[in-house]
Specification:
The complex is a heterodimer. Chain A is an all-alpha fold. Chain A contains four helices and two strands. A two-stranded antiparallel ribbon of chain A has the order 1-2. The longest helix of chain A is centred in the N-terminal third of the chain and has 28 residues. Chain A is globular, with a radius of gyration of 19 Å. Chain B is globular, with a radius of gyration of 18 Å. By secondary structure, chain B is mainly α. Classes of the chains: A mainly alpha, B mainly alpha.
Chain lengths: ~190, ~220
């Protein structure tokens, strides 16, 4: 049986990434104050996700009108999924007596690829909010965002395929623009 | 456990970080640096990390075994290797986090019969160890390419993604909850890609069985 090693562990304020092509977990730096979950932050995170999902749905509906026969059904499914997510988020925000805020965009007049690209960007924004929310939301909402990030992650891969991009670019899906092998922060700050 | 251990904790943490894309968090470190006795929160976190690492180690082995099916299509082999590498990155990050809170991660099984790796591991009780051994043994069953794809879909949908959905929300580490979400999204992508590789259209992959199995549901039930 291995034993807990109880000697003092140096605090580290860094995160090194890399290895197998991974932008890994961006973790809070040491010594930073960790804010306790609260309604205000819950609303901020859920509203950010809602904006991403609403905008993704709008862009996908534009893409649907421009889609060829082969892609139409898939794009319709993706739009329906983003709509469902938006509805779920609106309900969560309603539980907090919050009115959704944010920048809801107009994607009309975009071509198929442009609309899909916009949908991918908005899907990434939703993913970033879900990932942050899994960490920072009040416990009541964490299971919701974890469930939502499952389908949203798959949507990101589907959009990548439709756009002719790599559907599995990162081992850790952050919704951010990390590149494989990128490092976040320095690797050697620590308090000894 | 490991035959060769890094000489110091510092070295262990650095190796983990460099190899993995690490998880080392103030949120993880504080409990043990503050108290010599393991707290219930740290114990729960350790249990979560150890079981997650075990499940993902089995998944990584399954991808590796699938890639060795005789006569496999080279494009499929390449896709499986990419997925194996991504799962290995999850394992490395989880293992690094386990090291950071002062424990040893379970060793990776070298083959489907190597189930001793789940014995006497802090954070993996005997019931969990038996479950992991059963899962590991299932990796070794003889399968053709198509059957392996279904098995991999099933493994993700039934045994790995639901684990994160069920357990991650309650763990006492903001950073590990975030990391779990990022991992879960990646595994969902694997399910979609594997479903496409098994010959389904994109629309069918999106509208067919859910990415996460409900209780008792499995990929193989569907067809």
């Amino acid at each position: 049986m291995n034993q807990a090693r109880t000697a003092g562990i140096p605090r580290r304020g860094f995160f090194a990434l890399g290895g197998a092509g991974v932008a890994a977990a961006a973790l809070s730096a040491c010594g930073t104050e960790i804010e306790e979950p609260n309604d205000e932050r819950d609303i901020e995170i859920l509203a950010a996700a809602l904006v991403g999902e609403e905008n993704a749905a709008s862009a996908l509906k534009v893409a649907q009108t421009e889609a060829g026969r082969r892609e139409k059904e898939a794009v319709r499914a993706l739009a329906a999924q983003a709509d469902e997510h938006a509805t779920r988020l609106q309900n969560l925000l309603a539980d907090l007596n919050a009115t959704p805020e944010g920048e809801f965009d107009d994607f009309r007049n975009l071509g198929f690829d442009e609309a899909l690209t916009a949908a991918a960007e908005q899907t990434n924004a939703a993913i970033a909010a879900y990932a942050r929310g899994a960490g920072q939301l009040t416990e009541d909402f964490r299971a919701d965002v974890l469930e939502l990030i499952v389908d949203t992650g798959a949507r990101q891969a589907a959009l990548a395929e439709l756009l002719g991009n790599e559907p599995l670019p990162f081992a850790f899906v952050t919704g951010q623009a990390e590149k494989p092998h990128q490092s976040i922060g320095s690797s050697e700050k620590e308090e000894e | 456990m490991s035959a060769e251990r890094p000489a110091t904790r510092r070295e262990a943490v650095r190796l983990g970080a460099l190899a993995a894309g690490a998880v080392a968090a103030a949120g993880l470190i504080r409990p043990l640096s503050a108290v010599a006795q393991i707290s219930p929160e740290t114990e729960r976190l350790r249990d979560f990390l150890a079981e997650a690492a075990g499940r993902e180690q089995i998944l990584a082995l399954a991808y590796a075994q699938a890639g060795q099916v005789q006569g496999i299509d080279p494009e499929l082999e390449q896709a499986l290797e990419l997925m194996r590498q991504q799962v290995q990155a999850h394992v490395n990050a989880l293992s690094s986090a386990i090291e950071t809170i002062g424990f040893d991660a379970p060793d990776a099984p070298s083959d489907p019969q190597d189930d001793g790796v789940f014995d006497d591991v802090d954070g993996i009780d005997s019931e969990t160890a038996e479950e992991l051994k059963g899962l590991l043994a299932s990796v070794g069953e003889e399968r053709n390419e198509r059957a392996f794809l279904k098995f991999l879909i099933d493994l993700n949908r039934t045994d790995v993604i639901p684990f994160y959905l069920e357990r991650a929300p309650a763990i006492d580490s903001e950073d590990m909850r975030t990391t779990s979400a990022q991992i879960t999204a990646n595994l969902a992508q694997h399910v979609l890609v594997l479903t496409r590789l098994s010959g389904k259209s994109l629309a069918a992959a999106l509208t067919g069985q859910p990415l996460v199995a409900a209780g008792g549901d499995s990929a193989s039930d569907e067809e």
